[in-house]
Amino acid sequence: IRTEINEYMSQLNEEVASRLAHHLVEVGTDKRGQAEAFERVELGIKMAPDFWAFFESKRHNASELLLSHRDDNGHLPHDVVQWIESHYGAYAARVRSDGISRWRIDKPELFDHYLQRALAMRNGSGVTLSAVETLHAEMKSAGVAERLPWLVHWLKGIVCYRKEDYDSASSHYATAFQLAKYSAGDLQYSLVNQYLEVMAKTKQWRRFKQGVRWANYLDIPVRWLRDKEPTEENIRSSYGILGLEKIHYFQM
Known about the structure:
Number of domains: 2
Number of helices: 11
Radius of gyration: 23 Å
CATH architecture of the largest domain: Alpha Horseshoe
Order of helices and strands: HHHHHHHHHHH
CATH class of the largest domain: Mainly Alpha
Strand content: under 5%
Number of strands: 0
Largest sheet: none
CATH topology of the largest domain: Serine Threonine Protein Phosphatase 5, Tetratricopeptide repeat
């Protein structure tokens, strides 16, 4: 990432110098410092979104390639990592491959067992907070809980949601949403949409809007928004509908 940032700063400095030369003719050299600071901030704000969008697209493409080249044991061939590094940069290649390698080496023996048990509880009848706590204690003993820190909060949120205790549910969903951002995989759709509904029902517009932006970033369809453009008006429409009492999902 150092190369990309250095290039970005170099471009920013060139733009500042170019604008400053023109600007000083108008304001005079005595205000050079003030003018330079103003131009740097203004240009930085304008250029940053494009820079980070470009950088993130490289990281995303590198991640997709790495995931698609794993073998049956989750191993990544060294030549694949090297090729991706040469095309997308060291950071984009190494940050994802390191995570994949750690997961493959350190995956707890009962990980899949407890993951399936926890997921089965999502739609189980009569699931209580006490039952979730019991499962959490077992997961901790097996060394699984620390690998899935978002899952127990999600289950607790679901229990509160089914009781229509949305205030209590919101804190669990908020924690689950933050912890699961880069680790919930295919479960992101269900978790994110439940999170958004609870944020709407508890009138937390800012969190709702941020959640929609995150869903769009991951290409996750948002209920009552779907293929509509994520404009302020459309997001507020989805927020209003999901906040209605009669809108309630039983399949979690």
